[in-house]
Predict the structure.
Amino acid sequence: MLAYSQTFAFAWDSGFHLLAAQLIKSGKKPYLDFAFPQTPLNAYWNAAWMRLLGDNWRVVQATDAIMATLAVVLAAGFLRSRWRERGAWAVVPVFVLAGANPLVVEFGTIAQAYAMGLLLSVAAFWLTVAAARRNRTLFAAIAGLLSSAAAGSTLLTAPVAPVLLIWSFVYNPAGKKLWRAVAFLCGALISQLPLLILFAQSPTRVIFNVLRYHMFYRQSDWPGAIPHDIGIYFAWLHSPQALILGTLTLSGLWFIANKSGWDTSARAEFYLCAWLALAQAFYVSTAHPTFTQYYLFTVPFLAILSSVGLHALGAHIIPRRPQWLAAGVCTLTCLGLAEEVYDRRDDYTWPKLELVAQKVDQVTAPGAPLYADEHIYFLTRRAPPPGNEYLSSHKLRLSAALSETVHIVPQPEFDQRMMAGMFATVEACEDEDWIKKRNLEEVYRQRADVSDCAIFWDPAPKK
């Protein structure tokens, strides 16, 4: 995970996440000073690492890789603590089915909120079941804090806290149900204080970025969003890893219900894994548009159930050597990951974009106006022009008053500035049609192409 985070790990949206953290480090506030359609905790977490170790994507992605790894370790630790008599072969598959899952490896190692949301969700699950098993109210409070903090890092984990709260209320001792629920909710409230403080300063901006943007504007300028979503819903049919997880999860649930011999409380803890995975899968499926990586948050819980199912199938199919089946499934999973990584070898990476940033720095004077992708602002440590902190917001067409309030500038306005030569340099990783539409080759006298990105500078004198 660490090795991948320092080499191939990259997703395009990482740029605006890192830029947001850099802006926070410089003293700006999300929502109040720039558009940021995410909950804020992960951005503040990244900003803290930047303040400590510098504005470096490698540090942030290494931290994310460690957090994603810890989430897998916690999932395996949960199964180990509940099934010690089965030995290591009952637990090893959790590490492989979760830790070698392409979604976890590819998106748990990038500078976004996936790793933090994953770790906090699994830790909250672990503490919720521990609160009921060990009769600890403090564990319930910390579980509320962590599950709410997961949502405070990414709204994709929003179902975790409600599911854990309901389960806790049902399975805690009768005299402790109310107090545990209150402790859980108090912990949840504490983790939302940063967002509440920002909300108190500007309710309109916070509500727009955290809620209204996702409810009404994410699909803007995307006429094929619905067919895209339908394709995502059936993508599991083309994924061996997803098919393996699904089949083994059903086997694990059947074993737990019919053959395990566990008591009600023990079975309930494993059923909680299923409820969390189901709630997460349903919730992210309602996002419009949705993406395959959103289902990453189901993987640790499915891996726990799949490991139980794998052991049950192995004991039935190869009773003398059940570990052979586990070894075969783990090998197939690792081969699938290797193929996925190999297929992405030519995609954008941070080292490639660093070459683009070096060229931009070479041709752009300090303080000169620059239009660029978020990654380049971050790598060059140059402040973006107001409204260009989140390029995807340019597709929105809002009223003039609301656009000014939420710090969003529509793309046509930036296009006019480019065609007027108001930027000393323009960098874009777009196709030639995008460049021709803006007449960049006529407006600027110099061009360089680096890592599939175009850089224009030296504006031509106005005629």
